[in-house]
Amino acid sequence: MDTMELNQFWEQLKAELIQALPENAHPWIHPLEISGYDKGVLTVVTGQIMGRDLLRRNHYKQIIDVLKKVTQNPNSDLIIIYDANAAKSLKKESEKLQKKIANAAMKEQAMENLSYMQSAANLNLKYKFENFVVGENNKFAHAVAMSVAQKPAEKYNPLFIYGASGLGKTHLMQAIGHYTIFNNPKLKVKYTKTEDYINDFISNSRNSKDQVENMSKFNRKYTNIDIILIDDIQFIEGKKKTMDQMQHTFDSLYNKGKQIVITSDRLPKDIPNLTAALDSRFAMGLMVELIAPEENNRFEIIKKLAQDNGLIFEENALRYIAKNFSKNVRELEGAFNKVCAYAEITEQSLSLKLAKEILKCDEAEEEISFDKIAEVTSKYYNVEIEDLKSTARGQKISTARHMAIYLSREITEKSFVCIAEYYNKKHTTIMFAYEKIKKELSTNKELSSATREIKQALKLI
Ligand code: ADP
Ligand code: MG
Predict the structure, then answer these.
(1) Cα 113–chain centre separation
(2) Between vectors from CA 303 to CA 331 and to CA 160, what angle results, nearest 5°?
(3) Which of 41, 215, 318, 356 is deepest in the core (most CB within 10 A)?
(4) Cα(291) to centroid of ligand 1, in Å?
(5) Which of 359, 384, 405 is the last residue of a domain?
(6) Is residue 317 a contact partner of residue 339, using CB atoms and an 8 Å limit?
């Protein structure tokens, strides 16, 4: 659908929604703006957190029913995104882009990219480099992603971004897409979730009289592009035929000098039964890890959210949230949004008192630092802390160093790059030491009792 059709569709749908939903829901329906409609999935944006939550909680089924009725699509679904500025900036961005690009053919391509990126489910205008807060935990991944955006297919191809859920993989990946749309509009970008790729492949490769044509269409769709962004590749697990197809897609793009970016919640070697062919292809370029942000970084992330939304807040309210939600950024944002929603309905400012009342967190325990681990480990092995960071090779020092590295990773879950910086080593050396201890722990009693005692000294058990 082009913008005009999309708006007409939305107006019709909105009128039906007003008819079908009770009056108390109308104030939340009116301000909604459409962001995209793709394969039955309607994405709308609201500037009201409350509106989003209430519609999701109380009227989700009614909205889906109306959507099904209007579109006659039984697989209808709904995504409601909260973004105070999104609805406005969506319009502004297309206008900006239209103005910037004089050449008609380029304009068409750029608009197609933009609408594709926006209609791909879950795409968020927030997922840009400008909104990505850089810290120790992600500065390497961020720099590499930026380099790929600026010079696709030159240095890091494929780029494989991995890390646990909620740490910014999709954000960083889509930032590459947004950057390209605005700075290199003649390039064609495609963002696809792995699940969509799998479903698309299954439906097109089905035996039918059109199978050959369907498959050639499928191939064109995924290879006639300059940058492909494939999100959450771990979902390909167990899908042997799709893996073979992915290998063709990969080779075809790679051989034409096109950029491939992949995200995953784990390394290729940890995706069960990944074909050796794909495993080796994913490892051809660069793998970067995203890890959980430090407390100060977490504070910066929610501070930026608060500022961008023009909220009035007490700094220590944000500090409280940042301290207590350390696992991943999605949870951190969830906690922040929850407090905002209450502040909004009760017309209070975002204060520490309110944050404590709503979130009721147990006071978080102190994080254990690399320093502390190095101190306790060196004491256990009776070596100097400096020895751990040196290149000395004696048996006792090496074991102590390997153990400290292993525990640093296990306990803090920090990246190998981060640990490498602390110990003045290459990150491959750090990975080697970690894997070595991990492997030996199951058979070496001395090592396992050492880990236990050191963890006891760190008051972890
Ligand atoms: P993943 O794909 O790794 O599961 P997402 O990219 O979906 O994680 O990120 C989860 C949420 O956290 C998103 O709303 C994203 O914008 C936000 N986020 C993650 N990292 C950052 C960061 N460094 N700066 C700002 N927001 C971030
Ligand atoms: Mg993701």
Answers:
(1) 20
(2) 55
(3) 318
(4) 11
(5) 359
(6) yes
**Which CATH number covers residue 412?**
1.10.1750.10
Per the rule left: phi > 0, alpha: psi between -120 and 50, beta: everything else, 360 is left
Task: Read off the pLDDT of each residue in 214-227 and give the average, rounded to a whole number.
Answer: 94
Pocket test for ligand 1, best of 296, 321, 330, 336 (most atoms within 8 A of CB): 330
Q: Quote the pTM value.
A: 0.64
* Ligand 1 atom with the shortest distance to the CA of 232: 2
d(CA 327, CA 220): 40
Q: Which tokens sit at 293?
A: 């942000």
CATH code of the domain covering residue 351:
1.10.8.60
Into how many domains does the chain fold?
Answer: 4
User: Higher confidence at residue 79 or residue 290?
Assistant: 290
pLDDT of residue 120: 45
**Where are the alpha helices (H) located in 59-154, listed in sequence order?**
60-71, 86-100, 104-119, 139-150
- The answer to whether residue 449 scores a pLDDT higher than 60 is yes
CATH number at residue 276: 3.40.50.300
Ligand 1 atom closest to 134 (CA): 23
pLDDT of residue 6: 84
Question: What's the domain range around 440?
Answer: 370-457
DSSP 373: H
168 Cβ inside 6 Å of ligand 1: yes
- Closest ligand 1 atom, residue 131 Cα: 25
Shared domain check, 152 and 20: no
Q: Regarding predicted confidence, which is higher, 328 or 5?
A: 328
Could you say which ligand is closest to the alpha carbon of residue 173? 1
273 and 248 in one domain?
yes
Which tokens belong to 263? Answer: 């995200």
Q: What is the whole-number distance in angstroms between the Cα of residue 446 and the centre of ligand 2? A: 41
User: Is 290 within the bounds of a domain?
Assistant: no
Q: How far is the CA of 353 from the centre of ligand 2 (A)?
A: 33
For residue 62, pLDDT beyond 60: yes
Domain membership of residue 228 (yes or no) is yes
Claim to verify: residue 425 and residue 375 sit in the same structural domain? yes
256-260, 353-357, 404-408: segment of lowest average pLDDT: 353-357
Mean pLDDT of 47-58: 76
Band of residue 121 on the pLDDT scale cut at 50, 70, 90:
very low
Do residue 274 and residue 216 come from a single domain? yes
What atom of ligand 1 comes closest to residue 164's alpha carbon? 3
